[in-house]
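2024-03-11 09:14:02 INFO worker-7 job=invfold-0412 stage=load source=structure_tokens
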């Protein structure tokens, strides 16, 4: 094998020797990455397709350039447009953060007012949507209803297909952020067999969501300010998380130039899975299954034996702690002061304590993630488990949309189309 040394190798390049041919290549390194397409020049013969990178689950592949969210998983850093999550959560409203994600800057007071007014203007949904929500079984999972109704919105706004028109794009972004709580609350009320409570424009974004969820006979619903603020902060914590499964889905479907409703329905579907946004529901089911503190060690034993996963633990990117989980713990305390303590919280705290001292979790770098505590808070607020992923979807909507638009405007992007390594049968023929 040829001796490699620094001499003659550009400081911003990777020098590769192909052991099959002995040829050397210099691949430019830009922003800490090589271009996968540069590998294609590495061939054993002229008619060879060229080298590819095999990366199942995209564990080391940057699929895009982005200026929206920065994460340093080893140091537990999360920033939206450069702002640390700790400085946004609790101080900036979900709509201000949505504006930030979309526009790159926090809004001024006037911009915030105009943005709020725009969103409030679009909270109502077409009456026909109520009718097809009625068609779902009474026990239909609200995430299934949400995926379907988000997709159905595209049929109400055919102009959304004009994805190259900035004004039309903006209108759909506003509509989606505005209508998600309405769709979510209507899905909930359908399951409860309750009448659909219409949006109330006098309330905040989250106050209005609580109104559509909980309003009973009162003429005017008054949300509890502590719960309203806590839920708003939870949405901020979920607003974006760069190229996760659902956001990558949004970008991929969007890359075919599908309208944003269809792309976002696909993103919601990706979020629904128990390893992603469905995890918050699974955490609650797990805590209920454990039931008593004395049964935790046996549950942990089964997790370590590979029979189960400890839901709400572990993350592809965060390997020391999830900064969102730390902030959520603070919110939990505020909420429990209003709602009273939760017995499930005690079990959760004990699971966390035992797991964090256990060699298996330490060596696997498994820490509580955002979903570990969010479900306990939602439950204390009286929100049923099936709604947890729906709340995640409301929170993630501005992130999905910011990435969708960024992707469309990126001249480097084209329709997404991964390669594969074909390992199946070579050519063979059907016997006559
Ligand atoms: N419980 C027990 N073992 C685990 C867990 C867990 N929750 N997560 C990972 N491991 C083990 C896994 O068995 C493997 O062990 P080994 O190397 O001995 O075979 C090792 O840790 C690496 O696991 P992995 O599945 O290769 O890791 P990943 O980066 O592909 O998965 C994850 C990340 C979040 C899917 C995973 O940690 C998990 O399934 N967690 C539970 C579900 C959950 O809480 N999801 C919410 C994620 S945060 C919200 C969001 O952004 O969606």
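2024-03-11 09:14:09 INFO worker-7 stage=emit residues=432
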């Amino acid at each position: 094998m040829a001796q490699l040394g620094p001499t003659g190798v550009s400081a911003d390049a990777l020098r590769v020797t192909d052991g099959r041919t002995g040829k050397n290549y210099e691949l430019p390194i830009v922003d800490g990455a090589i271009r996968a397409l540069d590998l294609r020049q590495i061939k054993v013969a002229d008619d060879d397709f060229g080298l590819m990178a095999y990366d199942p689950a995209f564990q080391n592949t940057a699929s895009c350039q982005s200026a929206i969210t920065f994460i340093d998983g080893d140091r537990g850093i999360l920033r939206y447009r450069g702002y640390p999550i700790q400085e946004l959560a609790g101080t900036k409203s979900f709509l201000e953060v949505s504006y930030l994600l979309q526009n790159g800057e926090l809004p001024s007071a006037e911009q915030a007012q105009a943005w709020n007014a725009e969103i409030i203007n679009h909270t109502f949904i077409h009456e026909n949507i109520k009718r097809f929500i009625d068609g779902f079984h009474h026990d239909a999972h609200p995430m299934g209803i949400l995926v379907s109704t988000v997709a159905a919105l595209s049929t109400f706004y055919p102009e959304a297909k004009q994805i190259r028109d900035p004004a039309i794009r903006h209108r759909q972004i506003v509509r989606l952020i505005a209508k998600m709580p309405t769709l979510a609350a209507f899905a909930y009320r359908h399951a409860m067999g309750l009448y659909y409570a219409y949006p109330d424009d006098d309330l905040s974004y989250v106050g209005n969501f609580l109104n559509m969820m909980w309003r009973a006979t009162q003429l005017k619903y008054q949300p509890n300010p502590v719960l309203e603020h806590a839920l708003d902060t939870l949405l901020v914590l979920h607003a974006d998380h760069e190229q996760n499964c659902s956001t990558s889905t949004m970008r991929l479907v969007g890359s075919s130039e599908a309208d944003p409703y269809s792309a976002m329905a696909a993103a919601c579907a990706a979020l629904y899975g128990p390893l992603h946004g469905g995890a918050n529901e699974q955490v609650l089911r797990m805590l209920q299954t454990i039931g008593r503190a004395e049964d935790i060690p046996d549950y942990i034993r089964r997790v370590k034996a590979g029979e189960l996963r400890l839901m709400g633990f572990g993350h592809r990117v965060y390997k020391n702690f999830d900064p969102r989980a730390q902030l959520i713990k603070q919110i939990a305390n505020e909420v429990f002061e209003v709602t009273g303590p939760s017995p499930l919280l005690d079990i959760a705290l004990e699971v966390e304590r035992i797991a964090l001292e256990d060699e298996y979790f330490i060596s696997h770098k498994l820490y509580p993630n955002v979903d570990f505590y969010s479900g306990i808070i939602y439950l204390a607020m009286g929100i049923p488990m099936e709604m947890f992923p729906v709340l995640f979807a409301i929170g993630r909507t501005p992130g999905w949309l910011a990435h969708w638009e960024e992707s469309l405007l990126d001249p480097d992007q084209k329709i997404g189309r991964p390669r594969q390594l074909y390992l199946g049968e070579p050519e063979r023929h059907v016997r006559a």
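2024-03-11 09:14:09 INFO worker-7 stage=report msg="The chain has 17 helices and six strands."
2024-03-11 09:14:10 INFO worker-7 job finished
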